[in-house]
Amino acid sequence: MLLLSGGTGTPKLLNGIRQYIPDEEITVIVNTAEDLWMSGNLICPDIDTVIYLFAGMLDTGKWWGIKQDTFNTHKALRMAGHNEILQLGDQDRATHIIRSGFIRQGASLSEAVSKTASMLGAKANILPMCDEPVSSMITVREGTIHFQEFWVEKAGKPDVLGVEYQGAQTASVPEAVKKAIKRESNIIIGPSNPITSIGPILAVKGMRELILSKHVVAISPIIGYEPVSGPAAKLMNACGYEVSSWGVAQCYGDLLDIFIIDEQDMEMKSNIKNMDFAVITADTMMTSPKKSAALARVVLQQLI
Ligand code: GDP
Ligand code: FO1
Predict the structure, then answer these.
(1) Which residues fall within 8 angstroms of residue 101, CB to CB, at 6 or more apart?
(2) What's the maximum distance between 2 C-alpha atoms anywhere in the chain?
(3) 14 CA distance to ligand 2 centroid (A)?
(4) Which of 41, 154, 189, 237 is most buried per CB count within 10 Å?
(5) pTM for this structure?
(6) How far apart (Å, rounded) are the C-alpha atoms in residues 255 and 216?
(7) How large is the C-alpha radius of gyration of the chain?
(8) What would the pLDDT profile of 102-154 be if each residue is shown by its tens digit?
């Protein structure tokens, strides 16, 4: 079982999938374009969400960080005048220190993530989309800024003029990712942000070609004309896509074989019918583990 994931929508689906499939049989290729170095360590928000989910540690209220974490170091740094863009939990920071230590000793990101995930007890195969640094850069009126500056520091408020994946074209698909894709017939594109979660994964040089021949099942992260959460609307608009499942389908284009949209968008099914893939409707709103499991069941039924 192989999924492409960001850090909120797809982890909710993974929470359902793991009710049917053992963690050891799940591989997740995760976006790294929201990563950044902060206070001396590499923060990988989407990877950490997936690790913490499989380790049973995730704060599923926020879908980032560790449940019941404290923020003492973050507060102490702020009192000393060192402001961190992201509020880092103390236990979460321990993960960053361990992973960054491996990287400083010469490990690739893939190796560092694999070791960190097993130290924390996550049994799924969690693979960064690439080992080289890639960043989603957002162009606003004042210039071009990192995704985290746009979304967290500036609270997603500036008008967005464009998005680019800095470093993606010179990055390469890691061997572990190539192997994982080659051995699967199906690839699931989870309900993640098509611009800043799935977009960067597909932009890694050679990734799209590897996925093209597979049976791709994607789940829309948009219900009606709004994302369930996060900045997808502003970013899709800026990239010239309609904010709807139709727009998401256009982002993925010829990769799609099966596209799962929300049952509320039943009438969109007829708009999408001229495309070269099947459209399935389901309740895609995952507000509980039970609802995640119900959607996961629909997804599993679409696999070949
Ligand atoms: P990020 O890295 O935190 O941006 O996380 P993702 O890209 O994985 O997830 C963000 C996307 O998930 C947003 O576009 C949301 O609309 C979508 N999303 C979140 N929860 C749900 C849900 O329950 N159902 C669906 N269909 N989409 C969801
Ligand atoms: N998101 C926030 O909106 N505010 C935060 O203070 C914040 C801290 C944070 C710390 C660690 C981590 O792994 C993720 C964190 N996030 C935070 C989420 C992160 O910015 C995500 O990349 C975005 O929310 C969207 O994907």
Answers:
(1) none
(2) 59
(3) 19
(4) 189
(5) 0.97
(6) 6
(7) 18
(8) 999 999 999 999 999 999 999 999 999 999 999 999 999 999 999 999 999 99
